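Project standup — Tuesday

K.O.: blocked on the structure for the chain from last sprint. Re-posting the sequence here as requested.
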Amino acid sequence: MVLVDTQGKYVASNWMQRLDGRVLDADLADGWPVRVNGETVGTLILPGFPRPPEDVIREGFSPEGAATVGRVRDAIFVAGLSAGALGLAIAGLLAWGLVRPLRRLRVAAEGIAQGDLCQRVPVSSHDE
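H.V.: unblocked you, prediction finished:
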């Protein structure tokens, strides 16, 4: 990444070397404008990421765009909550199904420990 001022002079870079001079006009044309309060104060050059067409670059959202972003954000939030609740419900059912036979075994083991050797645990499935 390279940040240049409005004259094309280097301001900052993520390279370790110090950069002097100016950026080529071709590189400057592919850069992303940096705007503050609507005024272009510099250009950010990202090699490999050319600037999109001018109609894609916007200062902010229109009221309709902001409303759309809000609706999408709300939909993502509701979908996340729904998926989380469904996941917890399924996990609860699976845990209950796994723990129920273990509880039966525990009760039978406690009975055997107290001397009742007639304890039996019914087999309710064909798995192990």
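K.O.: great, moving the ticket to review. Residues 2-45 form one domain. The beta strands are 2-5, 10-13, 32-36, 39-45.
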